[in-house]
Protein backbone atom coordinates (compact mmCIF):
# COMPACT_ATOMS: atom_id res chain seq x y z
CA UNK A 1 0.00 0.00 0.00
CA UNK A 2 1.37 3.40 -0.99
CA UNK A 3 1.93 6.18 1.53
CA UNK A 4 -0.33 9.21 1.09
CA UNK A 5 1.26 12.48 0.01
CA UNK A 6 -0.69 15.74 -0.07
CA UNK A 7 0.48 17.85 -3.01
CA UNK A 8 -0.56 21.15 -4.56
CA UNK A 9 0.48 22.51 -7.97
CA UNK A 10 0.22 26.25 -8.64
CA UNK A 11 1.58 29.13 -10.74
CA UNK A 12 1.89 26.97 -13.84
CA UNK A 13 0.66 27.96 -17.29
CA UNK A 14 -2.90 29.02 -18.00
CA UNK A 15 -5.79 27.37 -16.12
CA UNK A 16 -7.68 25.13 -18.51
CA UNK A 17 -4.44 24.30 -20.29
CA UNK A 18 -2.38 22.99 -17.41
CA UNK A 19 -3.75 19.61 -16.36
CA UNK A 20 -2.37 18.58 -12.97
CA UNK A 21 -2.83 14.84 -13.39
CA UNK A 22 -1.12 14.91 -16.79
CA UNK A 23 1.86 16.83 -15.45
CA UNK A 24 5.02 14.71 -15.45
CA UNK A 25 5.83 15.34 -11.80
CA UNK A 26 2.38 14.23 -10.68
CA UNK A 27 2.98 10.96 -12.53
CA UNK A 28 6.46 10.64 -11.04
CA UNK A 29 5.20 11.06 -7.49
CA UNK A 30 2.41 8.57 -8.19
CA UNK A 31 5.00 5.85 -8.78
CA UNK A 32 5.58 5.74 -5.03
CA UNK A 33 2.78 7.68 -3.34
CA UNK A 34 -0.97 7.83 -3.20
CA UNK A 35 -1.05 11.46 -4.30
CA UNK A 36 -3.84 13.58 -2.86
CA UNK A 37 -4.35 16.99 -4.47
CA UNK A 38 -4.73 19.31 -1.51
CA UNK A 39 -4.46 23.10 -1.70
CA UNK A 40 -5.39 23.71 1.94
CA UNK A 41 -2.85 21.61 3.80
CA UNK A 42 -0.25 20.22 1.37
CA UNK A 43 2.91 18.41 2.35
CA UNK A 44 4.60 19.66 -0.81
CA UNK A 45 3.85 22.50 -3.24
CA UNK A 46 5.15 22.38 -6.80
CA UNK A 47 5.07 25.81 -8.41
CA UNK A 48 6.32 27.67 -11.45
CA UNK A 49 6.86 31.27 -12.53
CA UNK A 50 3.54 32.43 -14.00
CA UNK A 51 1.89 33.80 -10.86
CA UNK A 52 2.54 34.14 -7.13
CA UNK A 53 0.06 31.88 -5.36
CA UNK A 54 3.01 29.91 -3.99
CA UNK A 55 3.94 32.64 -1.51
CA UNK A 56 0.95 31.77 0.68
CA UNK A 57 2.72 28.48 1.44
CA UNK A 58 5.97 30.05 2.66
CA UNK A 59 7.14 28.34 5.85
CA UNK A 60 4.10 26.07 5.80
CA UNK A 61 5.28 23.14 3.69
CA UNK A 62 8.05 22.00 1.39
CA UNK A 63 8.27 23.96 -1.85
CA UNK A 64 9.54 22.78 -5.22
CA UNK A 65 10.19 25.23 -8.05
CA UNK A 66 9.77 24.02 -11.63
CA UNK A 67 11.25 26.61 -13.98
CA UNK A 68 10.93 25.87 -17.68
CA UNK A 69 11.37 29.49 -18.76
CA UNK A 70 14.42 31.71 -18.43
CA UNK A 71 12.99 34.05 -15.82
CA UNK A 72 11.55 33.97 -12.35
CA UNK A 73 8.57 36.01 -11.22
CA UNK A 74 10.00 38.49 -8.68
CA UNK A 75 7.24 37.52 -6.27
CA UNK A 76 8.85 34.08 -6.08
CA UNK A 77 12.28 35.53 -5.20
CA UNK A 78 14.99 35.04 -7.80
CA UNK A 79 17.28 33.12 -5.44
CA UNK A 80 16.40 29.47 -6.13
CA UNK A 81 18.35 28.35 -3.06
CA UNK A 82 15.44 29.71 -0.98
CA UNK A 83 13.28 26.75 -2.04
CA UNK A 84 13.59 23.22 -0.72
CA UNK A 85 14.46 21.91 -4.19
CA UNK A 86 14.14 23.12 -7.76
CA UNK A 87 14.04 21.72 -11.28
CA UNK A 88 15.39 24.29 -13.72
CA UNK A 89 17.41 24.74 -16.90
CA UNK A 90 19.97 26.59 -14.80
CA UNK A 91 23.07 24.45 -14.53
CA UNK A 92 26.37 24.67 -12.68
CA UNK A 93 24.64 26.80 -10.06
CA UNK A 94 26.68 25.41 -7.20
CA UNK A 95 23.36 24.79 -5.44
CA UNK A 96 22.94 21.17 -4.40
CA UNK A 97 19.16 21.39 -4.24
CA UNK A 98 18.81 22.34 -7.93
CA UNK A 99 18.32 19.59 -10.53
CA UNK A 100 19.12 20.44 -14.13
CA UNK A 101 15.93 19.72 -16.06
CA UNK A 102 15.56 21.39 -19.49
CA UNK A 103 12.03 21.99 -20.70
CA UNK A 104 12.37 19.54 -23.61
CA UNK A 105 12.60 16.65 -21.11
CA UNK A 106 9.03 17.44 -20.04
CA UNK A 107 7.80 16.50 -23.54
CA UNK A 108 9.20 12.96 -23.59
CA UNK A 109 6.63 10.16 -23.30
CA UNK A 110 8.39 8.50 -20.37
CA UNK A 111 5.39 6.33 -19.50
CA UNK A 112 4.55 5.11 -23.05
CA UNK A 113 1.05 6.54 -22.84
CA UNK A 114 -1.38 6.94 -25.72
CA UNK A 115 -1.27 10.39 -27.28
CA UNK A 116 -2.46 13.08 -27.36
CA UNK A 117 -3.27 13.77 -23.71
CA UNK A 118 -5.69 16.26 -22.21
CA UNK A 119 -3.64 19.31 -21.26
CA UNK A 120 -0.42 21.06 -22.15
CA UNK A 121 2.05 19.68 -22.81
CA UNK A 122 -0.44 17.23 -24.29
CA UNK A 123 1.98 15.65 -26.74
CA UNK A 124 4.82 13.69 -25.23
CA UNK A 125 7.48 12.73 -27.77
CA UNK A 126 7.99 9.01 -28.26
CA UNK A 127 10.93 7.90 -26.12
CA UNK A 128 11.43 4.91 -28.41
CA UNK A 129 12.23 7.25 -31.32
CA UNK A 130 15.21 8.48 -29.33
CA UNK A 131 16.54 5.39 -27.54
CA UNK A 132 16.97 3.13 -30.61
CA UNK A 133 14.04 0.88 -29.62
CA UNK A 134 12.10 2.06 -32.66
CA UNK A 135 13.85 2.29 -36.02
CA UNK A 136 13.83 5.69 -37.68
CA UNK A 137 12.53 5.34 -41.24
CA UNK A 138 11.57 8.85 -42.27
CA UNK A 139 11.33 9.68 -45.97
CA UNK A 140 11.92 12.86 -47.95
CA UNK A 141 9.02 12.34 -50.34
CA UNK A 142 5.89 14.49 -50.09
CA UNK A 143 7.45 16.99 -47.72
CA UNK A 144 7.32 20.73 -48.20
CA UNK A 145 10.46 22.82 -47.74
CA UNK A 146 10.35 24.77 -44.47
CA UNK A 147 7.94 26.00 -41.80
CA UNK A 148 8.11 28.80 -39.28
CA UNK A 149 5.64 28.72 -36.38
CA UNK A 150 6.12 31.72 -34.12
CA UNK A 151 4.17 34.71 -32.86
CA UNK A 152 7.11 36.99 -32.13
CA UNK A 153 10.80 37.53 -32.73
CA UNK A 154 12.42 38.80 -29.51
CA UNK A 155 16.00 38.28 -30.69
CA UNK A 156 15.48 39.44 -34.28
CA UNK A 157 17.18 36.42 -35.84
CA UNK A 158 13.96 34.77 -37.02
CA UNK A 159 13.48 37.75 -39.32
CA UNK A 160 17.06 37.41 -40.51
CA UNK A 161 16.80 33.75 -41.48
CA UNK A 162 13.30 34.22 -42.93
CA UNK A 163 14.42 37.03 -45.22
CA UNK A 164 17.49 35.10 -46.35
CA UNK A 165 15.41 32.01 -47.08
CA UNK A 166 12.75 33.95 -48.97
CA UNK A 167 15.38 34.94 -51.52
CA UNK A 168 15.65 31.29 -52.52
CA UNK A 169 12.63 29.32 -51.30
CA UNK A 170 9.13 29.94 -49.96
CA UNK A 171 8.78 29.53 -46.18
CA UNK A 172 5.36 28.61 -44.79
CA UNK A 173 4.63 30.81 -41.75
CA UNK A 174 1.74 29.87 -39.47
CA UNK A 175 1.94 32.11 -36.40
CA UNK A 176 1.47 35.86 -36.11
CA UNK A 177 5.07 36.32 -37.25
CA UNK A 178 5.29 36.69 -41.06
CA UNK A 179 2.02 34.79 -41.44
CA UNK A 180 1.47 33.82 -45.08
CA UNK A 181 -0.70 30.73 -44.63
CA UNK A 182 -3.91 32.49 -43.57
CA UNK A 183 -5.55 32.47 -40.18
CA UNK A 184 -3.52 31.30 -37.24
CA UNK A 185 -2.61 27.81 -36.18
CA UNK A 186 -4.43 26.88 -32.99
CA UNK A 187 -4.56 23.81 -30.82
CA UNK A 188 -2.02 22.16 -28.59
CA UNK A 189 1.47 20.82 -29.13
CA UNK A 190 0.24 17.76 -31.04
CA UNK A 191 -1.18 20.09 -33.72
CA UNK A 192 2.25 21.58 -34.24
CA UNK A 193 3.93 18.17 -34.29
CA UNK A 194 1.55 16.82 -36.89
CA UNK A 195 2.10 19.92 -39.01
CA UNK A 196 5.89 19.79 -39.08
CA UNK A 197 5.82 16.14 -40.21
CA UNK A 198 4.98 17.63 -43.61
CA UNK A 199 8.24 19.60 -43.82
CA UNK A 200 11.92 18.94 -44.34
CA UNK A 201 12.93 21.84 -42.12
CA UNK A 202 11.46 24.05 -39.43
CA UNK A 203 12.88 27.22 -37.91
CA UNK A 204 13.44 26.23 -34.29
CA UNK A 205 14.88 29.27 -32.56
CA UNK A 206 14.56 29.75 -28.81
CA UNK A 207 13.26 33.12 -27.64
CA UNK A 208 16.62 33.83 -26.02
CA UNK A 209 19.98 32.18 -25.62
CA UNK A 210 21.23 30.76 -22.35
CA UNK A 211 23.58 27.78 -22.16
CA UNK A 212 21.13 25.40 -20.50
CA UNK A 213 17.92 26.79 -22.01
CA UNK A 214 16.66 24.22 -24.53
CA UNK A 215 12.93 23.69 -24.99
CA UNK A 216 10.67 21.41 -27.00
CA UNK A 217 11.70 23.38 -30.09
CA UNK A 218 14.63 21.05 -30.68
CA UNK A 219 12.94 17.82 -29.61
CA UNK A 220 9.68 17.86 -31.55
CA UNK A 221 11.09 18.30 -35.07
CA UNK A 222 13.63 15.51 -34.53
CA UNK A 223 10.80 13.18 -33.52
CA UNK A 224 8.79 14.24 -36.57
CA UNK A 225 11.59 13.53 -39.02
CA UNK A 226 11.96 17.24 -39.68
CA UNK A 227 15.37 18.93 -39.39
CA UNK A 228 15.41 21.74 -36.81
CA UNK A 229 17.23 24.89 -37.84
CA UNK A 230 18.23 25.56 -34.28
CA UNK A 231 19.43 28.49 -32.22
CA UNK A 232 19.60 28.04 -28.48
CA UNK A 233 21.67 26.98 -25.51
CA UNK A 234 24.91 25.14 -26.16
CA UNK A 235 23.92 22.38 -23.75
CA UNK A 236 21.65 20.89 -26.44
CA UNK A 237 24.72 19.27 -27.97
CA UNK A 238 25.32 17.30 -24.76
CA UNK A 239 22.21 15.27 -25.52
CA UNK A 240 21.41 15.69 -29.21
CA UNK A 241 23.61 14.51 -32.04
CA UNK A 242 24.81 17.56 -33.98
CA UNK A 243 24.31 15.52 -37.18
CA UNK A 244 20.55 15.44 -36.52
CA UNK A 245 19.97 19.21 -36.59
CA UNK A 246 21.45 22.40 -38.04
CA UNK A 247 22.94 24.65 -35.39
CA UNK A 248 23.20 28.09 -36.91
CA UNK A 249 26.11 28.97 -34.62
CA UNK A 250 28.21 26.48 -36.61
CA UNK A 251 27.99 28.80 -39.62
CA UNK A 252 29.51 32.19 -40.35
CA UNK A 253 26.30 33.71 -41.72
CA UNK A 254 22.63 33.07 -42.38
CA UNK A 255 23.51 32.82 -46.05
CA UNK A 256 25.69 29.81 -45.26
CA UNK A 257 22.83 28.28 -43.23
CA UNK A 258 20.50 28.67 -46.21
CA UNK A 259 23.05 27.17 -48.59
CA UNK A 260 23.29 24.09 -46.37
CA UNK A 261 19.51 23.78 -46.27
CA UNK A 262 19.30 23.97 -50.05
CA UNK A 263 22.03 21.35 -50.40
CA UNK A 264 20.02 18.98 -48.20
CA UNK A 265 16.73 19.86 -49.88
CA UNK A 266 18.09 18.88 -53.27
CA UNK A 267 19.46 15.53 -52.09
CA UNK A 268 16.84 13.13 -50.69
CA UNK A 269 19.47 10.61 -49.68
CA UNK A 270 21.30 13.22 -47.65
CA UNK A 271 18.08 14.41 -46.00
CA UNK A 272 17.13 10.87 -44.99
CA UNK A 273 20.59 10.14 -43.63
CA UNK A 274 20.23 13.15 -41.32
CA UNK A 275 16.68 12.56 -40.05
CA UNK A 276 17.29 8.84 -39.57
CA UNK A 277 20.57 9.23 -37.71
CA UNK A 278 20.70 8.41 -34.02
CA UNK A 279 19.43 11.66 -32.45
CA UNK A 280 21.17 11.17 -29.11
CA UNK A 281 24.80 11.39 -28.07
CA UNK A 282 24.02 10.88 -24.40
CA UNK A 283 21.39 8.65 -22.82
CA UNK A 284 18.57 10.28 -20.91
CA UNK A 285 19.06 8.30 -17.71
CA UNK A 286 19.33 11.41 -15.56
CA UNK A 287 15.78 12.38 -16.60
CA UNK A 288 14.31 8.91 -16.09
CA UNK A 289 11.25 9.20 -13.78
CA UNK A 290 12.59 6.64 -11.31
CA UNK A 291 15.84 8.55 -10.89
CA UNK A 292 13.96 11.82 -10.52
CA UNK A 293 11.70 10.24 -7.88
CA UNK A 294 14.65 8.91 -5.92
CA UNK A 295 16.26 12.37 -5.86
CA UNK A 296 13.02 14.09 -4.77
CA UNK A 297 12.46 11.64 -1.94
CA UNK A 298 16.05 11.93 -0.78
CA UNK A 299 16.17 15.73 -0.84
CA UNK A 300 12.74 16.21 0.75
CA UNK A 301 13.12 13.29 3.17
CA UNK A 302 9.85 11.77 2.01
Write the SSE topology.
Elements: E1 3-10, H1 24-30, E2 33-37, E3 44-47, E4 62-67, E5 85-88, E6 98-100, E7 108-109, E8 125-126, H2 127-130, E9 144-148, H3 157-166, E10 171-173, H4 189-196, E11 199-205, H5 216-224, E12 227-231, H6 236-239, E13 246-247, H7 254-265, H8 268-275, H9 289-300
Parallel strand pairs: 1-2, 1-3, 3-4, 4-5, 5-6, 7-8, 9-10, 9-11, 11-12, 12-13
Helix pairs in contact: 1-9, 3-7
The oligomeric state is: single chain
The proportion of residues in beta strands is 15-25%
Strand order of the largest sheet: 2-1-3-4-5-6
- Report the sheet with the most strands, covering strand number, pairing sense and barrel closure: 6 strands, parallel
What is the share of helical residues? 10-25%
- Poorly predicted runs of 5 or more residues: none
Report, as a whole number of angstroms, the end-to-end distance.
15 Å
CA-based gyration radius:
20 Å
Count of discrete alpha- or pi-helical segments spanning 4 or more residues? 9
- Describe the global form: elongated
If you average the pLDDT, what whole number results?
Answer: 91
Quickly give the structural class.
Answer: alpha/beta
Number of strands: 13
Give the H and E element order. Answer: EHEEEEEEEHEHEHEHEHEHHH
Structure description:
By secondary structure, the protein is an alpha/beta fold. About 25% of the residues lie in helices and about 20% in strands. It has 9 helices and 13 strands. The strands form 3 sheets. Strands 2-1-3-4-5-6 form a 6-stranded parallel sheet, with helices on one face. A 5-stranded parallel sheet has the order 10-9-11-12-13, sandwiched between helices. The mean pLDDT is about 90.
Amino acid sequence: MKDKLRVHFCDFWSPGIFNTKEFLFYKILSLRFDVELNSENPDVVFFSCFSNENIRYNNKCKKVLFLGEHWINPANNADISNFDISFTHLHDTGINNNYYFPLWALFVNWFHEDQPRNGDPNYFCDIDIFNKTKKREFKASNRRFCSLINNRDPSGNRKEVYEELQKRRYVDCYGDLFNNMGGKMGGMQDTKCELIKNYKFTIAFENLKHEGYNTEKILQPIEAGCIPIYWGGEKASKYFNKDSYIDITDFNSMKEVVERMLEIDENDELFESIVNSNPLVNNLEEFDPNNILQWICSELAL
